[in-house]
């Protein structure tokens, strides 16, 4: 599928900080997926796949609940002690598996509150809307406040220069009438741009500013090309 470098993941926003400050998120499918896909097509890079990540906080979650969640997502093996990790008195449950080209992961962190992250990474052949519906449907029985982050992964032609890539990113902002909130540079040739678009409903608040668009690019040193990620509201990871 696609390869996400660890050095790049260290510079993205932390999920539990970002998605805990959600402003709004109505009618996700009409106002989030379609604009993101439209922008991805305008950039004219090869779409590699998608990532959908759901996040909730709950007061109680039993072993039976964990088994039910992973069963509903297609996991067929047993959840055993190998799935449990303990650090500084806190317990974490991690279950991950593959079905076809889809990679599923459930992470449950037991601390002062219980945080649940359910994610699916998939190739471009899958239906992004169905993945969203599935994750939301599985998490809703445990919390009415389900936060979701969606990302589209693309590969850009290796002959593009850095200014040409940055131009594509600013074109994406223009297509969504988005205002740039923050930009940054990570290790090597990796760049990130965060902003707010009136066309995207699923919005968070960061440092007093609304954010619902996150575009990042990094160089694949082995293939010589660039990877581009377009996300709403931010690029998020479960680890």
From TrEMBL:
It comes from Anaerobranca californiensis DSM 14826. This is TATA-box binding. It comes from the Bacteria. It holds the Pfam family DUF1779. InterPro entries: DUF1779, YwmB-like_sf.
